[in-house]
Amino acid sequence: MKKTKTKKTLQHTFMIIFTLIMIYPLVWMVSSSLKESSSVFVDAHSLIPDGWHFENYLTGWKGFAGITFSTFFINSAIISVVATVGSIISSTFIAYGFARVKFAGKSVWFICMMLTMMLPFEMVMIPQYIMFNKFGWIDTYLPLILPTFFGIPFFIFLIMQFIRTIPTELDEAAKIDGCNSFQIFYRIIVPLIVPAMMTSAIFSFYWRWDDFMGPLIYLSTPEKYPVSLALKLFSDPNSVTNWGAMFAMSTLSILPIFVIFFVFQRYIVDGISTSGLKS
After folding, report:
1. What is the pLDDT of residue 264?
2. Which residue, 243, 250, 277, is CA-closest to 53?
3. In this structure, is the dihedral angle defined by the CA atoms of residues 264, 160, 84 and 179, taken in order, positive or negative?
4. First to last CA, the chain
């Protein structure tokens, strides 16, 4: 009993220390958002501000050149929500096709899809820009949103593996009742793979909300900037950077991610626990 208690005590101690190390940057950012801009890095070791400067949030929210951060948050929401909806719908359709539908060259196409997961963004960045530039999509949201409507390989693989845990007897029973492939998909499969779809949606929303390189490449009008790109505007090499306001807006920018995660985290747990079941 003493050995078990000692082991558990050590495990919990290690987990607490590791957790504190992991959340320290987040706590430091929140603390810095309440400090005077000039003392953010001078007093960087202290997590308790000398004075509570809540005006940093008001100053940061005013934005730049008459463009408030409400505009940037709306832009991020539009990109993230629409892209997430597109990626989940398309990925679910494609995953169902790979998992249940028989067609010529199925293995080849699946391998090609998996290979695209290994391509770094830097390799396809220039060809994509040239293609979207010829389409006239530069300085629009189309390059950031439309490609998601053709499936995301990671989500396709995740949902496909989840579908494979569903007994095929359910499909056969539905066929006996007169259902075609599409009816089996949205009446049988979709209700059973909601955890996998929600898990993919959480990841998709987070990736789109946090995306910096994509908007930096394709957007040039400040009114269209998402939050991730708007935060860069605080850093001006020709003037003094308002660090307090920048960290204040950075703190607000992560709130939607926390809300989405804590509201839908049960789907992640359900997805992990259910994926271990065998048909």
Report:
1. 79
2. 243
3. negative
4. 40
The pTM is what? Answer: 0.85
- Written as six digits, the tokens of 226 are 């998402």
* Measured distance CA(161)–CA(194) in Å, rounded: 13
Q: Which of 142, 120, 118 is nearest to 131 (CA)?
A: 142
Four-residue CA torsion sign, 197, 201, 202, 207 = positive
pLDDT at 172: 86
Which of 96, 27, 51, 87 minimizes the C-alpha distance to 247?
27
pLDDT at position 279 = 40
Per-residue pLDDT at 238: 63
CA distance 86 to 178: 29
The predicted structure's pLDDT at residue 88: 95
Q: Is 233 helix (H, G, I), strand (E, B) or coil?
A: helix
Sign of CA dihedral 219, 223, 226, 232: positive
Residue range 65-234 forms a domain whose CATH class is mainly alpha
Integer Cα distance of 261 and 256 in angstroms: 8
Contact yes or no for 197/88 (Cβ under 8 A): yes
Sorted by where each begins, the domain ranges of the chain are: 2-59, 65-234
